[in-house]
Design a protein that fits this description.
The complex is a heterodimer of chains A (517) and B (435). Chain A has 517 residues and is mainly alpha-helical. Helices cover 57% and strands 6% of the residues of chain A. In chain A, the strands form four sheets. Chain A has a four-stranded antiparallel sheet, with helices on one face. In chain A, strands 1-2 form a two-stranded antiparallel sheet. Chain B is 47% helix and 10% strand. In chain B, strands 1, 2, 3, 4 and 8 form a five-stranded antiparallel sheet that branches. A four-stranded antiparallel sheet of chain B has the order 5-7-6-9, sandwiched between helices. The N terminus of chain B is likely disordered. The chains are: A mainly alpha (517), B alpha+beta (435). At the A-B interface, helix 6, helix 7 and strand 6 of A face helix 6 and helix 7 of B. Chain A: Its cofactor is [4Fe-4S] cluster.
Chain lengths: 517, 435
């Protein structure tokens, strides 16, 4: 892959230090179709995590750590090249999704700016200086003579913030106050005759303002291109998808199971073996084994079962029976029944809680004694292999799955498992445990039905906003058209089964990249 | 000036046709002057004035927005015809406000403000918790100095810190002051930048529920706050506000100040002392001053280890005297603000400019009223030149000040700005041609 990045050799060690991308222009990169979706999803997780952190009012130090953790968890790649490319690609894909309304633009701008701010802070001061010059900030360092004349005031400002003025040869920049509104607002700079004296460590503010202003304009331009050129052409195909991308991030929530899916307690055993995804199988096995589950597990499995069609009374009976060896009926009623009823919306707020999506499960953090979470993510390789074998996955498929896991494509791994277990392809990819269940049941119950039709039926049933009433073939074409018209990317779909653009019924592992859950 | 008189004055204006021609337009004449700068230079943007929004408040509280005019004459005629009770000035938009419906909300061709003076609004009712002489809309010479202080602090900062030059302070007609910063740089500020300046000025945060509404953290004050304190606030508080408002003379009042002390034991020590002394006759010195000295010496004594206690003295002074701005007015470009030289409908007083260099001498109780002006004008008889008509009246001084101290320098600077950008454009096109 072509790499477009500027690298700087750090003087201390001979490790190349790449500077942050500024996303000035989309570089000509080849993107695998799978990565296309996944990269954007991963970045979106980072942005949503940031949004969450800000919403909770986290302080800057906490945010710094949060951003580092989120980035590490979602955007890292063993090869620095790949990491840089993922960074850039994911940014541009999301730009397209979030350019379409004022509200979306505002959110995206806010999160990307925050992300940039904290990533900038992590950079070395050399790298920071390099970035500043890339922005062509026309700010002059304050001369020694001038510095002497304002030193006292600068010291006063520093002390008013509980800091000390750096050593005598500290670098200060003199900029028009309009360029640093945040610093002015917080009285964190000395201002004189319209000029603000900005310390090196405050330079972040300068740079971030530039970044933000650039991105803001770029988003408007992207939107313009979208509205003027692409949207009308793609009125029936692309537009609903792009809209779906950010609004139906949760996808179908499976909170209203259809009548056909009603199950009773005695069915659970059987369907657990045949149609549960690994995460739920594992939880179910543990309940049987330990006669107990901690809260996280009860929620994950309990809501899943509700989505599958287990009625409240049956659920109560099920859990009570499972816990019986350890928990008396009385105690169960006292300590556990309430929560189950709560999940079904019969207590408290009376919210009908929705079963967890893959995204939610993957991002959970099971601790000691927990069994919830996503096994593809949270299991050791050894344990995962063993579990897959128990499910009946062939050793060849196990290798594929493990490969996906190593690359952190957990949902792809689950999809491959599904395909291996059922012997048929899952074009849509797994995004929700209940989806896995339903797909599985359909395959088992209806023999000979074309997958495309089933697929449509499923989505219709759950009132998904995508209108896939036509054949799926066009799906393979939209991606390159889309990007070609925006002159940004060249996409080559090189999914496991060859080029996506010629044949969708090859049963290969090509995904619908637009169903970001 | 009672409301009755003001209404009578208003009635005169409406009913008596002959006087109308004299009174109304001339009263507003000076108002036009401030917009002359918008359109007089050959290289200037002719559409500028036409894109400025005005709003009128008519009789019976009828409010009409997005008024725009292509010339001063049009504006004058509209005012004479409609006799608005209040005239507000808004921003200059990207297009004529009258045509705004033809433009989109978003995208390319948008109806949006492009220039607007940086404005501030200070209202004495925001100080009701620290003045005892008046409440609400009333103002007297005891509490008016709070406005004077605000002018001094903000004006100095606007000039020295932000580098603005063309600043007009205007009496709002009843209970506050407005500030118009008209530098080109100021007019072009974005909402974000305006908010930044407003926040730079903000110190007061809180409401009835929180006791201490000023918090000045840090071992040392920012130079702006330090300067405001030493040059303006401290002196005013100790010499004027404290004794005039009797801030420490009785329990109800001194409790308010004691509440601001974070250390309960220190507060109760002072409380004890003052409760004992309340009946005893002390020295001839004002009791407020004596107690203030006591408070200062306790809080600032070397014994006090915590930073917070020493800073408390400044916090008390700030909480009583530091300017309290209406943030919302300053933050948004599209905020409408009353035009200078309007007549306040409730008091009849003219919104005259205030000279920041002499603001100590400004007396809101002697500001000319409409009735007064009408009388003066009638006495003077009809004159040829409308512009000089006000000379002989009590408004004459204000208009003269407005023209010489504010308008002319501003016009000059605008002219220079237009000329230099014109020259720069010529240069640029020359450059692109020459290569």
């Amino acid at each position: 892959m072509e790499v477009v990045q500027s690298h700087r050799k750090s003087s201390s060690n001979n490790v190349t230090v790449s500077t942050l991308p500024l996303y000035r222009s989309a570089p000509p990169l080849e993107v695998r179709l799978e990565d296309f979706e996944l990269f954007a999803m991963d970045r979106l997780r980072v942005l949503k995590g940031i949004s969450d952190g800000l919403g909770r009012g986290k302080k800057p130090e906490e945010m710094e750590k949060l951003v580092a953790d989120l980035w590490k968890a979602n955007m890292r790649h063993p090869q620095a090249n790949e990491e840089a490319n993922k960074d850039i690609i994911s940014h541009f894909v999301l730009r397209l999704v979030y350019c379409r309304t004022e509200e979306l633009r505002k959110w995206f701008l806010s999160m990307e700016t925050t992300l940039f701010r904290y990533r900038f802070r992590f950079e070395s001061s050399e790298a920071q200086r390099a970035l500043m010059s890339e922005f062509k900030l026309p700010y002059k360092a304050v001369s020694n003579a001038e510095f002497e004349s304002v030193k006292d005031k600068l010291g006063q400002v520093a002390r008013s913030m509980g800091q000390t003025l750096a050593s005598a040869d500290a670098i200060f920049y003199k900029v028009p106050f309009e360029e640093v509104p945040e610093l002015v607002a917080g009285r964190r700079v000395f201002i004189c005759k319209g000029h603000a004296y900005v310390a090196m460590n405050q330079v972040v503010s300068l740079v971030v303002t530039q970044f933000r202003s650039y991105l803001s304009k770029a988003l408007i331009l992207t939107n313009r291109k979208w509205t003027s050129t692409v949207r009308e052409q793609e009125k029936d195909r692309l537009a609903p998808i792009v809209e779906a991308l950010c609004t139906s991030y949760l996808g179908p929530d499976y909170s209203q199971p259809n009548e056909a899916g009603e199950i009773s307690v005695k069915d659970i055993d059987h369907i657990a073996k045949t149609s549960f995804p690994l995460c739920m199988r594992h939880l179910f096995e543990k309940v049987r084994e330990d006669h107990h589950l901690k809260h996280g597990g009860r929620m994950q499995l309990g809501l899943f079962l509700k989505g599958v069609g287990l009625k409240l009374d049956d659920a109560l009976a099920f859990w009570k029976a499972e816990f019986a060896p350890k928990v008396s009926a009385e105690r169960f009623d006292k300590e556990y029944a309430y929560n189950i009823r709560h999940n079904y919306g019969r207590e408290g707020k009376r919210t009908d809680y929705t079963p967890y999506s893959c995204q939610k499960i993957i991002s959970s953090t099971p601790g000691v004694g927990d069994h919830h979470g996503c096994p593809y993510r949270h299991f050791s390789e050894e344990n995962l292999r063993a579990a897959l074998v128990r499910m009946g996955v062939s050793s060849r498929a196990v290798e594929d799955v493990v490969d996906k896991v190593r690359n952190r494509h957990y949902q792809l791994a689950c999809t491959l498992t599904f395909e291996a277990v059922h012997g048929s392809s899952c074009d849509a990819g797994i995004n929700h445990p209940n989806q896995y269940f339903i797909d599985s049941q359909r395959i088992l119950q209806s023999k000979g039905l074309c997958l495309h039709t089933e697929y449509c039926v499923i989505w219709d049933t759950f009132e998904y906003s995508l209108q896939l009433t036509q054949s799926l073939q066009w799906m393979s074409l939209y991606v390159p058209i889309w990007f070609h018209s925006l002159a940004e990317f060249d996409i080559k779909g090189t999914g496991a089964a060859g080029s996506v653009f010629t044949d969708t019924t090859d049963g290969g592992g090509s995904l619908n990249p637009m169903l970001i859950q | 000036m009672t409301t009755e008189e003001a209404e009578t004055g208003r009635d005169d204006m409406v009913i008596d046709g002959a006087e109308q021609a004299n009174a109304v337009p001339d009263g507003f004449d000076a108002n036009y002057l401030r917009i002359y700068y918008d359109g007089k230079h050959p290289a200037c943007d002719r559409s500028y004035f036409g894109r400025r929004e005005f709003s009128f408040t008519l009789e019976n509280d009828i409010y009409i927005r997005f008024q725009s005019f292509n010339s001063v004459t049009e504006l004058e005629n509209s005012i004479k015809e409609k006799c608005p009770f209040k005239i507000d000035i808004g921003p200059v938009y990207s297009v004529d406000p009258a045509k705004r419906h033809a433009y989109a909300q978003g995208g390319d061709n948008v109806f949006t403000p492009v220039e607007r003076e940086l404005v501030f609004d200070i209202d004495i009712t925001d100080y009701d918790d620290v003045r005892y002489c008046c409440t609400g809309a009333d103002v007297c010479l005891e509490c008016w100095p709070l406005m004077t202080i605000a002018i001094k602090v903000i004006d100095t900062a606007l000039r020295d810190d932000f580098g603005f030059n063309h600043i007009l302070w205007v009496y709002s007609g009843r209970r506050g002051v407005h500030c118009w910063v008209c530098d080109g740089k100021a007019r072009r500020l974005t909402n974000e930048q305006r908010a930044a300046i407003a926040d730079y000025f903000r110190v007061y945060k809180g409401n009835e529920n929180s006791h201490k509404k000023i918090s000045l953290p840090g071992p040392v004050l920012h130079p702006f706050l330090a300067r405001s304190y030493t040059e303006v606030l401290k002196g005013f508080f100790e010499a004027k506000l404290l004794p005039n408002q009797n801030l420490l003379s009785c329990q109800e009042r001194y409790e308010k100040i004691l509440e601001m002390i974070p250390d309960a034991s220190v507060a109760s020590e002072l409380r004890g002392r003052w409760q004992e002394n309340k009946r005893a006759s002390m020295s001839k010195d004002d009791i407020n001053l004596v107690r203030w000295e006591q408070l200062k010496s306790v809080l600032q004594s070397g014994k006090q280890k915590t930073q917070g206690l020493r800073r408390c003295v400044e916090e008390v002074v700030f909480s009583f005297t530091y300017p309290r701005l209406d943030m919302e007015v300053s933050k948004h470009m599209n905020h409408l603000l009353k035009a200078p030289f309007c007549v306040h409908p409730k008091t009849g007083r003219v919104c005259v400019p205030i000279d920041p260099n002499n603001c100590d001498e400004f007396d809101p109780t002697t500001v000319p009223t409409l009735t007064q002006l009408l009388e003066e004008l009638n006495r003077g008889g009809l004159r040829q030149d409308a512009e000089d008509e006000l000379d002989g009246t009590s408004l004459g001084e204000s208009v003269k000040f407005f023209r010489t101290s504010f308008l002319q320098p501003l016009l000059k600077s605008c002219k220079e700005e237009i000329e230099s950008s014109y020259i720069a454009k010529l240069q640029q096109s020359k450059n692109t041609l020459s290569w």
